[in-house]
Structures are given as structure tokens and as C-alpha cells.
Amino acid sequence: TQLLEQSPQFLSIQEGENLTVYCNSSSVFSSLQWYRQEPGEGPVLLVTVVTGGEVKKLKRLTFQFGDARKDSSLHITAAQPGDTGLYLCAGGGVTGDMRFGAGTRLTVKP
Amino acid sequence: KAGVTQTPRYLIKTRGQQVTLSCSPISGHRSVSWYQQTPGQGLQFLFEYFSETQRNKGNFPGRFSGRQFSNSRSEMNVSTLELGDSALYLCASSITGTGHGYTFGSGTRLTVV
């Protein structure tokens, strides 16, 4: 059983479309991170959110941390083929036991 | 600055053998975590070391062990390999392991035949 549930599991869209992926849990996290992973490589950190209700923007990516610090969303505007990859959310405990969701595999077609 | 270095990159072992994987974290990072990634289970937490002490452990059998040296480099060992141990093993480092994101290495792809 995943501590963090991500949805959707798979997403295939056309270039230029918008999308949102979700990360939900019944647990409260001290921090939450989003990563993107490409085949054969390790995940790369995109953002860390710490405060409930926090919104962070990274170019076309918008990250939101839920008020209760149990859930998060990632919104991508005008997706591009370079956004293709596995998007992972991870929740941090107090003593460094970061747990990951199963991921959303995004494909953006040109 | 140099990233997280994992060696070897690829490894093929036979059932019953043991294997040792190495991870060199970013300079100044004292926390090193290990994960197993498989298509069916995703990223599963193995253990985390901080200042040479195992601080957290996931739900893996005792065949999986690790250690951290005084220079923060870490090794993980898997004894009596099983076919199901075939996976990408990822190491991640962070300054403290709490509240900060991780920097991952490229992983070691282990195949057990």
C-alpha cells in the first residue's frame, strides 16, 4: 500500500494542452517534494513545499500544497514534449524517511 | 559541484551471490538514503544513514544492509540474491535528510539471473 497516492497513473496529451496531477495521503507531512524522472536516470528535484496552502511556480509548472499538508497538485500549462517523464511526489517525515508515490507517467505528443 | 556518484552503473549477478553497491554523496551532505525501484512497486525506501548511523529503515528483509563511512560515502549490500532483487537501486543525498529535497544518483541497475 502506497503511503502517497498519485493520480492519474498514466497521462497522454498533445503539445499545448494543460494538465494537473495529484498527490494525496491520509498522513500529514512536514514537507513535500515533486521530482521528474527520465528513463535510466535518477529522479530530479523540481520543488519543495513546506507551508500548508503554499503555491510555487516554476516557469509553466505550478505546485500547490494542501492547507492540511496532506495533499499536493502539480499543474503544467501548455505542455511540451520535453515535459515527458515520470512525475513523483514524496513526503518527508521528521527524521529523514522520505516516502514516494508510485508516480504519474506523462507523455506529451508533438 | 559534483553530483551523487553511484557505482557500478550496471551489474549482473547469479542467484545466491551477494553484491555491494557504492554511493558517494554531494560534498557536505550527511544524509544518504537508498531506494529500490521496480516497475511494479515504484520507489521503495530501504534505509537512511546520517553521520554513520542508520536512522531509518524500510520494510526489507535482513539480506539488505548498509553502512556509512566517516566521509559520508555509503554502501549497501544484498546477500543471497533472489531473482526478485532485480531492480534499479538509487541513492540520494541531502544536507540533513529532513525538509530538504534529495539529489539522486543515476542508480545501479542490478540484474539477477
Bin the helical content of chain B.
Answer: under 10%
Question: How large a portion of the residues of chain B is in β-strands, by DSSP E?
Answer: over 45%
Using only CA atoms, what is the Rg of chain A? 13 Å
Low-confidence stretches of chain A: none
What is the β-strand count of chain A?
11
Count of strand segments of chain B:
11
Low-confidence stretches of chain B: none
- Termini separation of chain A (Å)? 35 Å
Shape of chain A: globular
Cα distance spanning the termini of chain B: 37 Å
- Run of helices and strands of chain B: EEEEEEEEEEE
Give the structural class of chain B.
mainly beta
Mean pLDDT of chain B: 93
Task: Assign an overall shape of chain B.
Answer: globular
**Largest beta-sheet details of chain B:** 7 strands, mixed
> Counting H and I runs of at least 4 residues, what is the number of helices of chain A?
0
Elements of chain A, N to C (H/E):
EEEEEEEEEEE
Mean pLDDT metric of chain A: 92
Give the DSSP E fraction of chain A (strand runs of 2 or more residues).
over 45%
The largest pleated sheet of chain A is described as: 6 strands, mixed
Report on the architecture of this protein.
The complex is a heterodimer of chains A (110) and B (113). Chain A has 110 residues and is mostly beta strands. Chain A is built from no helices and 11 strands. Chain A has strands at residues 5-7, 10-14, 19-24, 31-37, 44-49, 55-58, 61-65, 71-76, 85-92, 99-100, 104-109. In chain A, strands 2, 4, 5, 9, 10 and 11 form a 6-stranded mixed β-sheet that branches. Chain A has a 5-stranded antiparallel β-sheet with strand order 1-3-8-7-6, with no helix packed on it. In chain A, a hairpin with a 5-residue loop joins strand 7 and strand 8. The N and C termini of chain A lie far apart (35 Å). Chain B contains no helices and 11 strands. Chain B has 113 residues and is mostly beta strands. In chain B, the strands form 2 sheets. In chain B, strands 2, 4, 5, 6, 9, 10 and 11 form a 7-stranded mixed β-sheet that branches. In chain B, strands 1-3-8-7 form a 4-stranded antiparallel β-sheet, with no helix packed on it. In chain B, strand 5 (42-50) and strand 6 form a beta hairpin. Classes of the chains: A mainly beta (110), B mainly beta (113).
